[in-house]
């Protein structure tokens, strides 16, 4: 009798467990998929716009979405990935903090069966992310460099302010720039320093550089935040009308500064395109698609005083 009762109890437990599992599965199936949006920093308006565009598109497609700020810290980024995976997020739209340091997080998501779609910044592993949607930083900087050479009449001393050394965009922009400028021997780089894509750091970097090299003719900056920081340093030094500043991004304050002829040129990126494409790819993944481009380039357009009327912050006028 005891044995029979034990078997009956075990069968009842098994039936209950299966029923509970079935309810949870049905419950999960009926729930909207959740999308985590993990970005390198929200301390830069450009990345705020990128994140908000991704969230807006995910919401429009019917998904719950939440933005996570890594504060340019790979450890913080790792925490966000762990939290996203533990909390049942079904896809991650990702703007990495470091091309190498972020690989492990993307791989962990892949192992967990969660697709990762990189936006604007890449990781140095072609198979880790489901897809990487990236600005063509190299070609964009080639266009800026041609304008740079023309504006300086092929001669002069200049400073290059680099972005984050762990970000491939930093070096793609630098390489694109030098692929043109280095062909002109009378254009001499007197300093090259990193300011981590940060406005205040760029101002401090250029203030320091000007003490050792007061007679410069131009500054090429790896993003627009640094371009504005460099411009501030030039204003403080009384050199804003003598030194030409070039940026990269298409941020609102630089678009306005080009209109006011304070900044010479920038490379207009299209963060809305990258963010919305990433969200759309996630939607397609949820619906069964698995064949995505490993790397999808998004063109960068040169903005100068001649065509600035065609642009607004972070894109072209509609």
Sheet with most strands: 6 strands, parallel
Strand order of the largest sheet: 2-1-3-4-5-11
How many extended strands? Answer: 14
Hey, roughly how much beta strand do the residues contain?
15-25%
N- to C-terminal distance = 80 Å
User: What structural class should be given to the helix and strand makeup?
Assistant: alpha/beta
- What is the rounded Rg? 24 Å
Quaternary organisation of the protein chains: single chain
Shape: elongated
Low-confidence stretches: 1-28
The SSE string, one letter per element, is HEHEHEHEEHEHEHEHEHEHEEEE
The helix content is: 40-55%
Tell me the number of helical segments per DSSP (H or I, 4 or more residues long). 10
**Taking all residues together, what is the mean pLDDT?**
92
How is this fold's topology laid out?
Elements: H1 2-30, E1 34-39, H2 45-60, E2 64-69, H3 74-86, E3 91-94, H4 103-111, E4 116-119, E5 131-135, H5 137-151, E6 156-162, H6 168-181, E7 187-194, H7 199-212, E8 218-221, H8 224-236, E9 244-246, H9 252-259, E10 266-268, H10 271-286, E11 295-298, E12 301-303, E13 311-312, E14 315-316
Helix pairs in contact: 2-10, 3-4, 5-6, 7-8
Summarize the structure.
The protein has 318 residues and is of the alpha/beta class. The protein has ten helices and 14 strands.
Any overview of this molecule?
Residues 1-19 form the signal peptide. Keywords: Signal. InterPro entries: Peripla_BP_I, SBP_2_dom. Residues 35-289 form the Periplasmic binding protein domain. This is D-ribose ABC transporter substrate-binding protein. By secondary structure, the chain is an alpha/beta fold. The protein has helices spanning 2-30, 45-60, 74-86, 103-111, 137-151, 168-181, 199-212, 224-236, 252-259, 271-286; strands at residues 34-39, 64-69, 91-94, 116-119, 131-135, 156-162, 187-194, 218-221, 244-246, 266-268, 295-298, 301-303, 311-312, 315-316. A six-stranded parallel β-sheet has the order 2-1-3-4-5-11, sandwiched between helices. The chain has a four-stranded parallel β-sheet with strand order 7-6-8-9, sandwiched between helices. The longest helix is centred in the N-terminal third of the chain and has 29 residues, at 2-30. The chain is elongated and about 60 Å long. The N and C termini lie far apart (80 Å). The model is unreliable at 1-28 (pLDDT under 50).
């Amino acid at each position: 009798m005891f044995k029979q009762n034990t078997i009956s109890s075990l069968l009842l437990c098994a039936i209950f467990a299966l029923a509970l599992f079935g309810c949870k599965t049905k419950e999960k199936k009926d729930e909207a998929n959740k999308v985590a949006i993990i970005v390198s920093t929200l301390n830069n308006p450009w990345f705020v716009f990128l994140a908000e565009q991704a969230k807006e598109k995910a919401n429009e497609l019917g998904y719950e979405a939440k933005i996570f700020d890594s504060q340019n810290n790979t450890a913080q980024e790792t925490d966000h990935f762990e939290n996203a995976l533990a909390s049942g997020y079904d896809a991650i739209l990702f703007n990495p903090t470091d091309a190498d340091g972020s690989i492990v997080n993307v791989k962990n998501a892949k192992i967990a069966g969660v697709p990762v779609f990189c936006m604007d910044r890449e990781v140095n592993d072609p198979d880790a992310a489901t897809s990487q949607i990236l600005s063509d930083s190299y070609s964009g900087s080639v266009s800026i460099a041609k304008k740079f050479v023309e504006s300086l009449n092929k001669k002069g001393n200049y400073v290059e302010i680099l972005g984050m050394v762990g970000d491939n965009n930093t070096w793609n922009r630098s390489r694109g720039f030098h692929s043109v400028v280095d062909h002109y021997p009378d254009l001499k780089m007197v300093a090259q320093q990193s300011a981590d894509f940060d406005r205040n750091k760029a101002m401090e970097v250029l203030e320091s550089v000007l003490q050792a090299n007061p007679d410069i003719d131009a500054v090429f900056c790896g993003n627009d935040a640094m371009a504005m920081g460099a411009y501030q340093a030039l204003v403080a030094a009384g050199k804003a009308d003598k030194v030409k500043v070039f940026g990269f991004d298409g941020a609102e304050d630089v678009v306005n500064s080009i209109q006011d002829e304070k900044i010479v040129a920038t490379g207009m990126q299209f963060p809305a395109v990258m963010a919305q494409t990433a969200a759309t790819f996630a939607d397609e993944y949820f619906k069964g698609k698995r064949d995505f481009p490993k790397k999808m380039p998004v063109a960068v357009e040169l903005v100068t005083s001649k065509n600035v009327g065609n642009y607004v912050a972070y894109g072209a006028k509609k």
